[in-house]
Amino acid sequence: MKASLRWILEYVELPTRDPEELGEVLSNLGVEVEGIETIETQFTGVVVAKVLDVNPHPNADKVRVATLDAGGDPIEVVCGAWNFEAGATVAYATVGAMLPGGFEVGAKEIRGVVSPGMICSEVELGLGDESDGILVLEDGYADAGTEFASTLPYPDAVFDVSITPNRPDAMSIHGIARDLGAFFDLPVTVPETSFDEDGSSNAVVRIEAPDRCTRFTAREVKDVTVAPAPLWLRLRLRDAGVRPISNVVDVSNYVMLEFGQPLHAFDLDRITDETIVVRLAEDGEKLTTLDEVERTLTADDLVIAGVDEPLGLAGIMGGGDSEVSDTTTRVLIEVAHFEPTRVLMSGKRHALRTEAVARFERGVDPELPPVASARAAMLTAMLGEGRVVGGFVDEHPRPPEPVIVDLPDHEAERLLGVEIAVDQQVGYLTRLGFGVDGTNPMRVTVPTYRPDVTRPADLVEEIARIHGYNEIPSRLVIGRGGGLNEQQRAVRAVRSIMAGAGFYEIMSFDFLGLAEIQSLRLDEDDPRLDPVRIRNPLNEEQEYLRTTLLPGLLAGLRRSTQRNRPNAALFEMGSVFLRGDASLPDQPEHLAFAATGARSESPLDAAGDYSVEDALGTVEVLLGSLGIDATIKQRSVAGLHPGRSGSVMTDGTEIGVVGELDPDVSDSWDLNGRVIVGEFDLALLAPGPPVPFVVPSPYPPVVFDLAFDLPNKAATADLLAAVEATAGGDLERIVVFDVFRGGPLAVDRKSVAVRLTMRSAERTLSDEEVAPVLSRIAERVSDELGGSLRGG
Amino acid sequence: MVSLEDLSGLQTRAEADLAEASTVDAVDAISSALLGQGSPIAEARRGLRDVDPDERRELGRAISEIAEAIEAVVDERRDVLAAIERAEHLAADRVDMTLPGRRPQRGSSHLVRQVWEEVVDIFTAIGYTVASGPEVETAYYNFDALNTPPTHPARLESDTLYVEYGDDPEGVLLRTQTSPVQARWMESHDPPVYIVSPGRVYRRDAVDATHTPVFHQMEGLAVDDNITFADLKGTLAYFIEQFFGPGARQRFLPNFFPFTEPSAEMHTSCHVCGGSGCRTCGGTGWIELLGCGVVDPFVLETAGYDPSQVSGFAFGVGIDRLAMIRYDVPELRYFFDADMRVLEQYR
Ligand SMILES: [Zn+2]
Fold it and tell me: How far is A256 from chain B (nearest CA, A)?
């Protein structure tokens, strides 16, 4: 909201007029100043002049010659505008005047007539947007010859303030003045509302939805002449960011800005039977609002209606049909109070954020309508040269109960941590308009313009606002717990291991489109293919909640490739969302990684491309670092390469999968090379229990190599398990050092060679001792895997 | 029988031969020829057996002296050549040390995550526990328990992402704040409470410079006997000092949040310009950093606490925002973009 300092000063005599200083005060009161604009007159040498005579130009049809009284001898100037006649008061730029934009006015010859200076339009003076015709001032604006700049309300400072949703009272110039008055402990005046009444109005108001409209007032002003509002009013609206329209409409906007009470002016002659009905709309009912949009209403919308059709959307925007026009003479001023939340919902539904909505949604003072109505009637009658009609209608079906809150004297100290004397608290509250009786508790009556205050804590905030938040001391309190729990530490460990293993952590949105999840070639009955849907998604690509982290990672690899960075290793840790039995989806946290392209950015390293061995190695490092004893079970994992994928198992439970992406899936993500991936349930990556220390043996080892001729399909893990199970406690280390096919082997066979290091903790082993172990190993491998010792 | 005269000529010969030798191997060959098996020295030693015992000792000593003298010159020459050969060998082994090295693979944790962990650590160090909760949350915990009634605008479909789960179309949602974690925690723990809850939150915002539908927040909550606004100020001042370094000033402006009363917005003096005004702070010298306040009595009551006995403070800060401010990241979307050019900057 824009708040002019000059306007504020009309209600309160502030001790300072320094905009910066006042801006600081306002912000500290919770009326946050987001900017301060200084408005200055942008011209010199312009005076008020009276048009004495207007005559045709001797040599031109499109311009005329006007004789002006500018305070001295009559002056003849040439003028191209036709919106004035003799008797008009105008702004005359003398020779030598400087106009906005650095334009210097001279004496100019126009078709043989010399024009010393010119009559100015609004635009030429930087006072408005109207360029059609010159600026015509009201009669008696000022004496001829008066410096025009001196009649304008400038310089002025305009605060751009942001008002929080709980402060309806601050949505007005008078309200801001009231807060400043409270802060500086100064009286704040109430705008004048006096007028005489003439006759009695026949207007009738019927409230059919009293829970939505708790008060409705109507007042008639007759014999009104609709015309442009005087300059001071137009400028005031302009500086507040509101477009001037006509005296009648401008008055309602002015009063709204002044009091924060939206109001509406109807052309009474256009209201059937002079009867207004406040009712809920019918579903499907149509209303064309002032912005010329035809709106379809619902039964949740409240309308101001005539006996037949809706005239406006209550508290939001009027309709075109009953609007005040140039021919209007009888004005009905409507000032009402509407239930805040419903106005807000209705406004949101119709995407209308009007000034009225911004005020009603916060909750306008229910006692304001008669005051605002009187003020608007007085100004309408004054500016439209009309007369206020008696018979003020004030339908007030639900007058609010006064709100009284008991405030214990130590409550402020208990919540703020600063001692504030009771009389000081009483002073603050009184200055803010609260009524206070007694001391402990203080019995506080809340003014009707503060509907947000209902409890002691709310009063404490009021006390704190005036006392100053920045006057409250600062004290560090120390908690009673602290540190991460085991699971939290494990999650950090996983992250640091993955980063250490060469992967970059990404954060992607938790959303995916159906096409993305379907591209993964999952099994038909895979629960990940049935993602939870967002009811109001932003778009189709963000319609579902992710059931796996892979799409985010694959999208990352694809984007990286598109950006000419085809080598990328990424990981992400975050929730996935799966249907379950509870009232909320299962939301396990996952770890997933994906990599493609060269393992090193430097071709000199000749490190080769990522392939499944890197995926396996990553898993080994991850699980090894966490102390998790796991094995890989080879199986064709849906979505992954059938021959290059498997489950990661601990104690017979699958804790994750690892492998290369199915080449067709890679293709569908525009990834050309091999893509390695792995995905784990983080909760299952809990570090293993502490492992006892093994004292290194001081004795020398016996090292020997064994090469086995095995069926192709035999799992190396099974071979190693068989060897380990047979070798006994002296087996220190076993390493696979050679794998090959072909050569001397049968077609469906492969050779796997392992190097065993045997070492006793108690003595030096001899070859003779080890020999029987070897034959037992050979026997077992033969029995279990159909393998034979090669060359042995 | 080798004469002593013959032997004394050997030393001269050795010196001449060694001068010719250009490699350690050649020196070794000369040494072997003069001193090794079958060499004149060896022969002379062997001949001692036949010498009269009286002369043997003297002759033996003379042979040894000659042998030692030869050994000395051999060693001297070998050392010289060995040094040269070592230098040549190392020179040949030279590597252009300005070539790129063979790097162990490196990755990084995300910048937002680094900030996340840092702010968590700041609070765990002063006795806070880390609490977490579900991201798909019930409207009860996200709104109702936090004094945000069904008619509150934050609950509108234009602002909150609702999830199709269960029967109530407005019952399940993507949490819009991490505050539901606080509500859940208080429901299951008695005071004192000192927790921080970092996590993902969601709003129905299209992506622009400062908005993404997913972002990260950390909320803090302290509930105990005698917790006041003063404790809030001191705690946040400590946090800012730890995160941005010493010297930052704070100011607290009244604001409005449904779950705190009194509520405040905390501004901190700009860490870039120190308060004189710059691009980072939009020329104001202040950065709007977070919302905070004294826990609203409704929230305490809903959790089953007695608001007349205990009090608390709460604050919420955007983790992404902290990262943007500290690292001068111009747009939020970079954090959600897996661009290697971005990720590599996260050290
Ligand atoms: Zn700055």
Answer: 23
Map out the domains of chain B as residue ranges: 4-92, 111-346
Using an 8 Å CB-CB cutoff, list chain A residues near B189.
none
ipTM of model: 0.89
**Residue B282 DSSP code:** T
* B111-346 classified as CATH 3.30.930.10: yes
**Which distant-in-sequence residues (6+ apart) come within 8 Å of A285 by Cβ?**
A296, A297, A303, A310
Burial of residue A440 (number of CB atoms within 10 Å: 0-12, 13-18, 19+): exposed
Mean pLDDT for A120-129 is: 91
One-letter amino acid at B347 equals R
Q: What is the distance in angstroms between the Cα of B196 and the nearest Cα belonging to chain A?
A: 10
Q: What is the mean pLDDT of residues A35-45?
A: 94
**Residue A621: in which H helix or E strand, if any?**
helix A612-626
How many cross-chain Cβ pairs, A to B, lie less than 8 Å apart?
282
Per-window interface: A 457-476 vs B, CB < 8 A: 457-458, 460-461, 464-465, 469-470, 472-476
For residue B6, the tally of other CB atoms under 10 A from its CB is 12
The yes-or-no verdict on residue B255 having pLDDT over 90 is yes
**Contact (CB, 8 A) for A34 and A163:** no
Name the residue type at position A170.
Answer: A
* Mean pLDDT within A389-398: 90
CA dihedral A69→A73→A76→A77, nearest 10 degrees, is -60
Q: For all residues of chain B together, what is the average pLDDT?
A: 91
> How wide is the angle at C-alpha A720 spanned by C-alphas A714 and A721, nearest 5°?
95
Minimal CA separation from A325 to chain B, in Å: 36
Taking CB atoms and an 8 Å limit, are B336 and A509 in contact across chains? yes
Query: To the nearest whole percent, how much of chain A has pLDDT over 70?
Result: 100
pLDDT of B3 > 70? The answer is: no
Q: Please check the confidence at residue B7 and state whether its pLDDT lies above 80.
A: no
- Chain B touched by A537 (CB under 8 Å): yes
Look at residue A792 and tell me whether its pLDDT is greater than 60.
no
Q: Does A418 touch chain B (CB under 8 A)?
A: yes
Paired strand residues for A654:
A649
